[in-house]
Amino acid sequence: MSIIKDRLSTFGRLEALSQNDSPLHKLHPTAKIAAVTLYIITVVSFPRYEAAALLPMFFYPAILMSISETPYSAVFKRVLAALPFALAAGIGNLIFDRETAFQAAGLSLSFGALSMLSLMLKTLFTVMSVLILIAATPAKALIKALLALHVPQSFCLQLMLTRRYISVLADEVISRGRAYSLRAPGRGGVKFKDMGLFLAQLLMRSFDKADNVCCAMKCRGFDGSYSAEKLPPASKADYLFVAASVPLIIVPRVINIGTIINKLFS
């Protein structure tokens, strides 16, 4: 259960970073969402075997981290949690796509390995961009911007409630885990055969907590809709940020910089 506590503390640190006063923090949240969305679409659009061409896409999030003064450790620690899922999804490519892509120094690399590497790089860059957006923008401002972009209100409400009450669910998991360890000391965690009962109890307790939270919100006038103040209009700096982001994102996609460098040194 200490892992859950560590994850909550790191999540809280990311929330704290959103209160900084860097030039990126001062920009309009809609401009940052637009730039990050364009970046994610561009990264995902790379062909499955173009792992080398993806590498220059790292520079844009690196620039954003530098402008926002976001520590690299705060981002990469959270990115590492997503990489195992990309690795699990790409292992199948190693098995079914064994055709040799190229050979160098007596070593051969299959197309399956290239596609797996490409998938992991895409996961790395897209998750990085989202984490930088969260670290550079307060949660309330993000939700206001999503509403201004006509994102469904139900989605924004769910996002806000999840962010606010995820600690309640984590506390319940810790409480259930502590109760289990007191009944079965020295086991070092929940046994697989007890996992079904553990999750069922957690689900029932979560329903009960959610019902209590909903009743408390209704007592305070909550009617099921999310109302927020409108954001101020975008400034010239916001438009300049988007205009500068477009070539930084699009040029590495259109021009294979890796091929150009290879030709220069060959």
Describe the structure concisely.
With 266 residues, this protein is mainly alpha-helical. The protein has helices at residues 2-17, 23-26, 29-44, 51-54, 59-68, 72-79, 83-96, 111-136, 139-148, 153-183, 195-219, 236-254, 257-265, and strands at residues 100-104, 107-110. Helix content is 72%, strand content 3%.
Order of helices and strands: HHHHHHHEEHHHHHH
The helix content, as a percent range, equals over 70%
Give the class from helix and strand content and strand pairing: mainly alpha
Q: Total number of β-strand segments?
A: 2
Uncertain spans: none
Number of helices: 13
Distance between the termini: 54 Å
Looking across the biggest beta sheet, what order are the strands in?
Answer: 1-2
Q: Which range does the strand content fall in?
A: under 5%
Shape: flat
Structural topology:
Blueprint: H1 2-17, H2 23-26, H3 29-44, H4 51-54, H5 59-68, H6 72-79, H7 83-96, E1 100-104, E2 107-110, H8 111-136, H9 139-148, H10 153-183, H11 195-219, H12 236-254, H13 257-265
Antiparallel strand pairs: 1-2
Helix pairs in contact: 1-8, 1-10, 3-8, 3-12, 5-8, 6-8, 7-8, 9-10, 10-11
Written overview of the protein:
- The structure is a single chain.
- The chain has 266 residues and is mainly alpha-helical.
- The protein is 72% helix and 3% strand.
- The chain contains 13 helices and 2 strands; from the N terminus they run H-H-H-H-H-H-H-E-E-H-H-H-H-H-H.
- It has helices at 2-17, 23-26, 29-44, 51-54, 59-68, 72-79, 83-96, 111-136, 139-148, 153-183, 195-219, 236-254, 257-265; strands spanning 100-104, 107-110.
- It has a two-stranded antiparallel ribbon.
- Helix 1 crosses helix 8 (111-136) and helix 6 packs across helix 8.
- The longest helix is centred in the middle third of the chain and has 31 residues, at 153-183.
- The radius of gyration is 23 Å and the shape is flat.
- The model has no long low-confidence stretch (mean pLDDT 80).
